[in-house]
Amino acid sequence: MSDKWTPRIVVFQCQYCLYSEADQKWMDTQLPPHIKLIQVPCTGRISPLFVLNAIQGGTDGILISGCQPEKCHYKEGNLGARRQLDAFRRFLTYLGLEEGRIRFAWIDVSERGRIQQELAGLEKTIQAMGPITRLATRAIPVGEKR
Amino acid sequence: MNSLTLAIRQEAARLLEEKIVDVVIGFEAGTLPLKAQPAFITRKEEAEKLVFNGFCQNNLAAYLTRFPKEKRLGIICRGCESRAVRALVIEHQHDRDKLYLIGVPCTGIIDWRKIERRVGENTLQAREEGDEVIVTTRDGEHRFRRADVLHDSCARCLHPNPVGADIVLGDPLPEGDPERAWAPVLEFEALPPEERYAYFVQETGRCIRCYACREACPMCYCTECFVDHTAPRWTESMITPGGTQAWHIVRAFHQAGRCVSCGACERACPMDIKMTYLVDKLSYDMMQQYGFEVGASDEKQPPFAAFTLDDRNRFVR
Amino acid sequence: MVDAARHPKVDIRTYTEVERVDGYVGNFKVLLREKSRYVRADRCNGCGECARVCPIEVPNYFDMNLAPRKAAYVPMSQAVPLVYNIDLDACIHCYKCVEACGKLEAIDFSMKDKLVWEDVGAIIVATGFSHFDPSVMPEYGYGRYPNVITAIEMERLNNTAGPTAGNVIRPSDGTNPRRLAIINCVGSRDKHFNPWCSNFCCMYGIKNAVLLKQTYPDMDITIYYMDIRTPSKGYEEFYDRAREMGIRFIQGRPSMITEDPETRNLFVHSEDVTLGRVIEREYDMVMLNQAAVPQPDVDTTSSVLNVTQSPGGWFMEYHPKLRPIDSPNDGVFLAGACQGVKDIPASVAQGSAAASRAGRILHSDQWEIEPIVAVVWEDRCVSAQGKKCGICAKACPYGAIEYEQGKAAHVVTAKCHGCGGCVAECPHNAITQMHFTDAQILAQLHALLAERPEEKILAFRCHWCSYGGADLAGVSHFEYSSNERGLRVMCSARMDADFIYEAFRLGAGAVLYSGCHPQDCNYITGQRLGAARAERLMKAFEKMEMTPGRFRVEWISAAEGDKYARVINEMQAVLNSIPKEKLMEEIERLRPEMEKRARRLREVPQVEEALEYSRQLEIAMVGEEA
Amino acid sequence: MNHQPETFADQVRAIPGGEHLELCYSCGTCVSKCMIQQKVEPEYNPRRLLHKVMIDLDQEAFADKTTWLCSACDLCYPACPQQIHISKVIGAIKQLAVEAGLTTYLQTAVVNELTCVACGLCVEVCPYEAITLVETSVMFRGKAVTVARVDPNRCMACGLCAASCRSASIGLVDKFSNEAVVAELWDWIRSPVVEVTA
What we know:
The complex is a heterotetramer. Chain A is an alpha/beta fold. Chain A is 36% helix and 16% strand. Chain A has a four-stranded parallel sheet with strand order 2-1-3-4, sandwiched between helices. Residues 142-146 of chain A have low confidence and may be disordered. Chain C is α/β, with parallel strands linked by helices. Among the domains of chain C are: 130-293, FAD/NAD(P)-binding domain; 369-435, Alpha-Beta Plaits; 436-621, Rossmann fold (3-Layer(aba) Sandwich). In chain C, the strands form ten sheets. A five-stranded parallel sheet of chain C has the order 10-17-11-12-13. Chain C starts with a helix and ends with a helix. A two-stranded antiparallel sheet of chain D has the order 1-4. In chain D, strands 2-3 form a two-stranded antiparallel sheet. Chain D is of the alpha+beta class. Chain D is globular. Chains in contact: A-B, A-C, A-D, B-D, C-D. The interface between A and D is large, with 53 and 40 residues.
């Protein structure tokens, strides 16, 4: 593992995520290239298959950010997501994936700067674990295009 | 000929004669020893073909979804099958009032692989006698204690008795031991992650992607499976580590809260891949986290549909 | 205050609580608890040596806890009388103060609370208001974000006698804020907390903005408001001045304040209603103009003084328009915000008015009241027979009835206002009201329904509203059915259910039950008593399957002559719509039930004689005609 | 007073949930609470919509995006100082709009009727009760089959159904379809943004 290794992170963000204006702007424009932002209407939209695709594709960490409970734009989408994705995460852990590669945060609009903290936290966890090895069985060689 | 078989034949004949059902799904003697095969009886006279013994290894509930909803079905239901039927009825796959469940308490299915591992592939005849299985091969007769050659899933079966059956033939059996049922999950979980992953890689590495497990499973009834999709292509369709792993992960995950632990998938697998440890983990989680057990109730929705605000939360921060 | 203290006829008792009030107008007996200060007021000269040596510091409540005070303290430097006080909860009993006090020997730790009875002729309640605590509104972050402060905290910061000597600083870092947001209606006009408008906050916010702008001309001040309310003399002009000074006004109620965790700056999030756009603006400091709320101990005060509360907890005035200073308890007057939120000029005006109202009592030897008071027939009262009752005492809005099991209920005549609620409520007909006795009302009722009762509409009207309404209908020449027969009582509370039953027993075609609108009752809660009774009656008649419309309940004010006429005409239309024989049949069908229900009325003393007298009269009149 | 529902405001008020319409004093709290307004549609403004209703501008209310975009998250309800259940009022307006023959312009969930097995999971997870199981005339397995159907006037396109469907037979279209999300993900995974370990 070289010192230069940069973890690749996918952020699944609910479209209505209760970010403050500044944080949303930061997410939209300032995100470093090793972090990919994928917007979905609601965390409830995140199929476990999306997560599996990201893991198998060699993504080192996944951050899912959604709205606070009872503040979900779609009433209870975030609760559905919690149940399904929690089960899926536990299942992947059971198969040997390091816990902590998948992080799920409920962020409130009053929590300014929280998303940056969560990203930094995730990055720190991943740095400690090193690049993903288990389950990353669909990794594509650098630069390959379809 | 055991008394259960007789009772089943009588009940099947009665159902067909009184036109309570159109088809009775049961087992008939297989063409090979150690294996019975599913039978679909439509006429009263054919009821004589039915058998019931420890060699009946299919999950008959799997055939429920292959009949149109108008058909009235009589199904021989062991514990696992009856719970699968319940789950399928909740999932609107058939109307309960068009089903007639002939419940049979089940003492477990004999694992022919365990026997052949000891006697080789030369079985001529096999039969059960009380707690023993007697196998005749070219080199003579072998006697096995039933408990030694039961299929793994059956050995740790929690609910051998059918639930919600219209009639139960035979005497109820004692319920299984939960500790024993969940032991494999807990043991596996206790292993270090790298060993768990290595085991998963090793098992899935043998997979030839024949999807026999999918066909054998009563709960795998989608018209088009996610692995067959082309838009999007969820996973690699060839036999690659990525593809086979994704298949096993997602197949198991789709069973979360639905698997009845019958073990039909493992029995069907031509490569003898262990896979019940996957789904058992999910079943264990569903029970621990959300108090959900498949087939326990007639109404309860699968756990992913029943999320609440008060879900236990260790995940979301 | 100092002037008042020096006045020979003014006696100021501070640090004293009213424990109990007995008696009635002109003859109150008040029990006072003079709380011990552990400093003897007669010896303390207010030098402050005790506070100087006291080692204990606790937050100063008067400075909104922004500064400390000692355990030996005066609440504020302008306190009258200037007597120090020892906070025993904080005191560690080092006795340094005793030493410092020296020869004065004013400090006395052995002091005890003193209970004193005083005779007074009148009481003025001026307990003021309290402040809404905005920390229950998490969206504004008060308590969480240091730079969100309340208006009162700003008041202390901006006061030269305050903890910062008038230097307005941010609590987070001590710098002067350059951008300040003032948010109006925090906890007021909000149904989650206090539905009322706190009256003075608009002006108060503008005042603070103007003061700050004068001190810090560069300060960027924005006021968030829903509506600016400037209804008094000179107020709108003041508002104009504020705008001319460059104070910004944004119409829009902020939904949320967020904080930058590093700079501790605040972002106020609101819609600018005039723009129709959501705006987020950054400020250094936010001031919340919180609602005025009743004092936390208002319930105790209210029960001690026997003064009822209006919704929200303010003290209830006798009448919202006509007698805003008197309380329902004669001789007790309300002044200032304890009666309802009001600003300083209004409070001063009300205070002066209360003083002169009280003076009227103190200057007269006798106190005249209306003679329509309630009287108890002691021999009929079941309480005297040892039974549990007390219904009359509960019904009385003035607390004029003293009830004690085993003794007959006793009406304190000086307190009784003559609504008649107790009379109608008493299940044993043991109370009557002078000039409105059961016998008198019944005699009227019989006379009104003497001829062709089935054609008549008997209208019970309360004296203050519906009777006035009918009067207005008359003088305005609004036409209404001539079959209407009015019967006046003082309040709908007096409209005994028995009268209604009796009316129907006699065969009345229709009965109107009318009184003041709920909020306008002249007897505080009298209308509510009547309305509850009317509802019970309505249900009973529904059960009896009486034709709907024959019994009608309407609240008609003295200004609603048109309504009175319309209601009567509508009732007439109902009567017209019922075929005569059907009506007669219904009357006959219901008569036994009505008779049964009205029977108790016959047991009332004098009723039979009164009825006999009216019968005689009738015979005589009919005879004359014949 | 018992007058008949005549004006548009009366009609809205007559629908349960719409009663407190006229209590609104236009403080704008709801608007600044609303995430649709901030994240998706700047034109979105419940306060204005309520006002349009109050002064009987029915056609303008129907044409207002607010009518169709409110997803009843009810962030505004606890914030409203007048305790108006705004999403219910908007629901009442939407109901009248639907009765007037209008439909949502949202791209709502669609069902692939060929692969749907009508397990009913989507019916259960849908927060808006927009999905029902119906018999359809699509001939399959010899007979008419039961499939899930989405009521576009109830669906708010959250995608909860799509995430829970095992056979991926129900889903959103365009930007949030399975194809689009997976393609977006893999385009990035394949891109040489950073060194990939293998």
